[in-house]
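Incident log, support desk, overnight shift.

02:14 A customer reports that sequence design results differ from what the structure should imply. Their input is reproduced verbatim below. On-call engineer (initials T.W.) acknowledged and began investigating.
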C-alpha cells in the first residue's frame, strides 16, 4: 500500500458508533413517557443494545419500543409480571397459561413462547420462567419479538396501529403509543 493511501486513510474522520442516547436523552424519554428517569437511565442502554444487536435500532423502532415498554409496564420502565398488583395465588387460579404468564417488558406469555424465546436466546425459560424478569433477558426478548413478529417493520412504516396490534393483540394503548411517538417527532 502506498504511503499516500495510508495517509489518506488516516485522515478520513471516523464516524462514531451510534449510542443509545443518539435519538433522545433520558430526560426527554422521561418527559415524553412519564416513566421514572432513574429506571429509564438504568434500562435503556441494555434495551438499545438488544435492538442494535438484532439490527432493528432505527429511530422509529426505538420510539415504538419505548412507547411499548411504557404501556406494557404501567409506566415503570421495568420488567413486570402480568397483573403485578395481584398475588401469585391469583395468577395461579385465574390464568389458564400459568406458570407461563406475562413477564418482562412485553409480557411474554404461554409455554410455547417461553420455549421459543428461550431457545432463541439460549436461556432456560421453561425451567426458570423468572428469568424473563431479568432486565437483560427481557430486553432481548423484546428485541427478538419486535423483529420476528413484524412489529419493527410496522414501526419503520409508521404503522402504529399494526405495531400495537402485533404486540398487544388489539388496540389497547394505541392512543398513548401514538402520543409518545409523535412527541418523539415521528409522524402519526
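02:41 Re-run completed on a clean worker. Output:
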Amino acid at each position: 500500500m502506498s504511503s499516500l493511501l495510508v495517509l489518506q486513510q488516516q485522515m478520513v474522520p471516523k464516524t462514531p458508533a451510534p449510542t443509545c442516547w443518539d435519538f433522545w436523552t433520558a430526560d426527554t424519554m422521561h418527559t415524553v413517557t412519564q416513566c421514572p428517569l432513574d429506571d429509564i437511565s438504568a434500562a435503556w442502554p441494555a434495551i438499545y443494545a438488544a435492538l442494535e444487536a438484532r439490527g432493528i435500532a432505527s429511530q422509529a423502532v426505538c420510539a415504538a419500543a419505548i412507547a411499548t415498554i411504557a404501556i406494557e409496564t404501567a409506566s415503570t420502565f421495568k420488567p413486570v409480571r402480568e397483573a403485578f398488583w395481584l398475588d401469585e395465588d391469583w395468577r395461579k387460579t385465574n390464568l389458564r397459561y400459568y406458570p407461563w404468564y406475562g413477564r418482562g417488558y412485553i409480557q411474554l406469555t404461554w409455554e410455547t413462547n417461553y420455549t421459543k424465546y428461550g431457545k432463541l436466546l439460549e436461556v432456560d425459560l421453561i425451567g426458570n420462567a423468572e428469568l424473563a424478569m431479568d432486565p437483560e433477558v427481557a430486553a432481548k426478548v423484546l428485541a427478538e419479538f419486535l423483529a420476528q413478529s413484524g412489529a419493527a417493520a410496522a414501526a419503520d412504516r409508521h404503522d402504529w396501529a399494526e405495531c400495537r396490534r402485533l404486540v398487544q393483540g388489539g388496540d389497547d394503548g394505541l392512543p398513548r403509543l401514538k402520543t409518545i411517538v409523535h412527541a418523539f417527532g415521528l409522524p402519526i
